[in-house]
Amino acid sequence: MGQDKLLRKDIIMKSTLYRKSISILKYLGLLVATILLFLGLNFWSNQLDDLHIQDVKIYNTFFAMENGKPTFYLYGKLKPTFASYSGGAFTQYNNSNGGNYGWNTSKNNVYIDGQQTHSPFGSKEVVFRIKSDSKEGLTLLNQNLYLTDHHHHKIKIYNAKTKTQPYSINQKDTQKFIKQNKLH
Fold first, then answer.
1. Which residues 6+ apart lie within 8 Å of 159 measured at CB?
2. Which of 132, 133, 123 is nearest to 87 (CA)?
3. pLDDT-based confidence at residue 25 (cuts at 50, 70, 90)
4. How far apart are CA 110 and CA 163, in angstroms?
5. How many Å apart are CA 4 and CA 79, to the nearest integer?
6. How many Å apart are CA 143 and CA 83, to the nearest integer?
7. Which of 83, 105, 112, 117 makes an SS bond possible with 137, Cβ 3.0 to 4.6 Å?
8. Which residues contact residue 4 at a Cβ distance below 8 angstroms, ignoring those fewer than 6 apart?
9. Does pTM top 0.70 for this prediction?
């Protein structure tokens, strides 16, 4: 009888230890799986992707003088939940495929490209700043400006012929800016 009590205690203690060990392993496995999932989602969400025109709501554009040069600003907001903006002041640079990101110019037009990430926690605010640079073919005031994406969609954000900005709050008529800053 005495040995049965000791045997029973030993079995109960071992089974309790076994159950606790299994519970701990389950929680550790769940923790590791959660961490791996979070890291994977974080990696995916921070991948750069082309900014899609339909994802941007433009709420203001304007010209300002910066170091004696006309500079164009565009402010907007991204619409989708799982997108955030990645960018800022735009300069031209080449991607790994040899194509240009940032902006491209022709004699009469400037095409602005943007990028976004998929982070739900990132900023939804979109800001582009492009400074005139005659060496790079950016005269801005004499060129039509377009916000574009790599699917060949575009939005005209400045008309050089009429000197108007359809998305501007205060400065639809750029003539005033040109006169104030004595630009030709």
1. 144, 165, 166
2. 123
3. confident
4. 15
5. 71
6. 30
7. 105
8. none
9. no
Residues in CB range of 148: below 8 A, 6 or more apart: 53, 111, 112, 113, 154, 155
Flag whether pLDDT at 183 surpasses 60: yes
Alpha-carbon separation of residue 143 from 18, 67, 76, 138, 158 (angstroms): 75, 20, 21, 8, 8
Supply 80's token pair. Answer: 């989708």
Could you identify the residue written with the tokens 């299994």?
22
From CA 126, how far away is CA 75, in angstroms rounded? Answer: 6
CA 28 to mean position of chain CA atoms: 35
Q: Spell out a b/e string for 21-36, using b for 16 or more CB atoms within 10 Å of the CB, else e.
A: eeeeeeeeeeeeeeee
Q: Are 140 and 72 in contact (CB under 8 A)?
A: yes
One-letter amino acid of 47:
Q
| Residue 12, token pair as written in the block | 């109960």
The pLDDT of residue 78 is 84
**CA proximity to 147, closest of 158, 139, 138:** 158
**DSSP E strands: which ranges in the chain?**
49-50, 56-66, 69-78, 84-86, 93-94, 100-101, 103-105, 109-113, 115-117, 125-131, 144-148, 154-158
